[in-house]
Amino acid sequence: MATYNFTIRATDNVGAYSDRDFNLTVNNTVYDRFVIVGNTGLVRSPDGINWTFEDGLSGFGVNFGGGQWLVWTNTTIMRRSVDGTNWITYTPTFTGNPGAISFVNHLRYINGAWTGLFSSTVSGGGLVEMTSTDGIAWTYVALVTGTANTASADFDIDPAGNMVTRDSNTFMYRKDAVTKVWSRVGANLTFPYQNNAASTIRYYNGVWIYMAGYGAAAASCYATSVDAINWVVRPNAETITGLTYVNGRILSMIYNPSTPTSNTMYASTNAGRSFSQYGNNTAKPGLMNNASGRQGFAYFGGTLLYGVTGSGALHRSTDDGLNWTRSNLPGLTSCFAVAARDGIL
Questions:
Q1: What is the spatial distance between Cα 71 and Cα 107, in angstroms, rounded to a whole number?
Q2: CATH no. for residue 103?
């Protein structure tokens, strides 16, 4: 709690004045700005430097929206919190005949509501779209695909309302903003996917970007589209993971598993049409080892974070990804997803 003292002076047109003193007492509330979920629990931090471990609150994904954090697991168990400190574990409800939900694929808060993709038994087993205002009660919207789905199914929605995702195979799907119908797109291309490896879809400045892959170059993919229907495959490296937008640049990590010290930050200033090496790449050996939640980056207020799967390490940059500081997170041995309160993905 802090008290602020100040004086207000009123002056008339001939210079006479009168002062009045005021004081204002403010109950300062510190919210956790960042949350990272992993294999043993979650960690939370108000500044990206000081972290508190919450044992047992594990998860595969995390996002913030509508005034609360949501964490999801590889089942239907979810967790929610307003402040990042006090958490409620619960089982959400599903209405609208979505079939039996087996697990949560991915959740995002966009345009004032939660949108989620879930694996379901509907149509023999597939991926369904659902929506929620509170993250507790979910309503069935549409069947995305009847293909049995084990993918993490990242997705994004553009300002017009078009939505794009992909399945466990090599297929991309688009929901038309007008007809509300899902259909397969980019049928002439193969969009490789490895379960539990980074696979990211983002819409930035008029261009859709898809990045995925872990291992050989043949199993990696970097593709762009202006309409989410026709896709162009771009040159890629052995592993491409994670996307974020920071001060006019789209950043991504490229990792060569055969030479770990070649981990390199790449940046694009033309809406993802091309990327080039960026920053002080010698300062971050071991920076990248794939982010299995696809959401390896989080940014807020000049702090950019990147979590590492397989080690529980965290990398922090305060100069938009030019230089990085590495630290070990308490309690976690693997980071699955990183998010910031009111931040940028």
A1: 9
A2: 2.120.10.30
